[in-house]
Design a protein that fits this description.
The complex is a heterodimer of chains A (about 150) and B (about 400). Chain A is an alpha+beta fold and about 150 residues long. Chain A is built from seven helices and four strands. The chains are: A alpha+beta (about 150), B alpha/beta (about 400).
Amino acid sequence: MADYKYIINKYKFIPGGLIEAYHAIQREYSYIPEDAVLAASKAFDIPYAKAYGVATFYSYFKVGKRGKNVIRICESAPCHVAGAADIVAALEKELNIKMGETTADGKFTLEFTECVGQCQATPVITINSKPYGDLSPDKIPAILAEY
Amino acid sequence: MAEEMRIVLRNLGKIDPLKLDEYIAAGGYKSLEKARSMDRKELIEEVKKSGLRGRGGAGFNCGMKWSFSYGIDSDQKYVICNADEGEPGTYKDRTIMENDPQSVLEGMAICGYAIGANKGYIYCRGEYPYVVEILNKAIAQAKDKGVLGDFDIEVRMGAGAYVCGEESALIESIEGNRGEPRFKPPFPPVKGLWQKPTIVNNVETFANIPVILEKGADWYAGIGASNYPGTKVVTLTGDVNNRTFFEVPTNTTIREVIYEFGGGIKGGKGFKAVQIGGTSGCFIPEANLDTSIDFDSMGKIGAALGSGAVFVMDESRNIVDVVERISKFFEHESCGKCTPCREGTKRMHEIMGRLNNGKGTANDVALLSRLGKVMSKACLCGLGQAAPAPVLSTIEHFKADYDAKLV
């Protein structure tokens, strides 16, 4: 795994590169380690509060540990009427965790998200941003088995 | 029978989006060449004359916008493509970028020439990493071939903030900041990215540009509704048979979109409501379905075309339940910069929750109306101003659903 300091250094001379740096860290870690925010504030020469403020403003960034595979369930209106709540129940049952939690083995985290732009196939979830559409509860075990 | 007309999706299924040569063989980059042989002012006049209005939702005359940046002397100007489509139920920009990325790049380069900018950014939403890959490949191919000339394009990725669809918030995000909208004026065409003149246009707007130059402003101005000419890509979701996208002339009616293109309501059920323009759109009742989808006609019935999302609900749907869900969306997506939006979206969700759980009173409905009216005037940006639209339009048109849930 690439060290976050190494990743940050690749972006620090790009104007406005902080967000790109955070994306790159998350591609490697699936989250942003607390210490990486401090390192970013130093590398980009901005106050720690600002680096932290940016990292926590965007819902796709997560400061602090989460699971290796992030499952996001869209709960926007089109997915809501298509039965997103049933998908949530199926995922919670299959993984034996609640929304917002991570499995004990650190493999999966369940998060709500708003529209992911795959509305031709509601309801939709994404795993590490890969979309799975036209879901029904019975399709969940096979999808999870891919990971 | 209403028919599709493909302008921005002209190459869909006809070319391999990752083969620049196929785009060029289909006439690609001839418009950029033509533009560069024109006088800049003349070029902007041509775009203005086509009547093309922004396809992101605000509907501002595109050529007019360009003229604001053109008229300013500056050592640096920027072109930004807004690919942060976050309106729930919308995936038109993804469809365009996945199927014809070069047409977007060409449109941006034409804008760059027109206003005197040599640098462009595409701000693509964080939900579409696979689109970012396509864009980066397309840009690399265009650079290799030299078709963009001295115009440089870079892709930046959003990170799940709906508010970044607002152009000044988007600019803040490219600068590496929290995506909070700026106070206006100055507007981005005057002072935008790093305080330089910046044109921000939507993906669909840029994809129209090469065709307008190829076929002429008069040709374009003659398509669809005269005050909002051209086509619109609409995406159908909800209780409709064909959950897919269509590109239709702007004088197509809502009824044609739902019943002809959409194939009508699923399961033979009755129609109840349609929300157009995404989650910030108004709910439209049966009585208004014969309205044409163009920007101004929609405005006349108190609605908006917005992003072109068409979310259909059948007679079995409870409007209060759907609107409560929508009010949660806005509470979550409010950036928190201005008080009317930060507090308003929170209280709106709270009251909607009370109503949906059967614990609300007529007083709550009156309070919602008042709060909504204040927010639509007092909020800093379009997010907060539009957030009450679903609430206010459903209280107006679907009052019975609210009454049925009162204590």
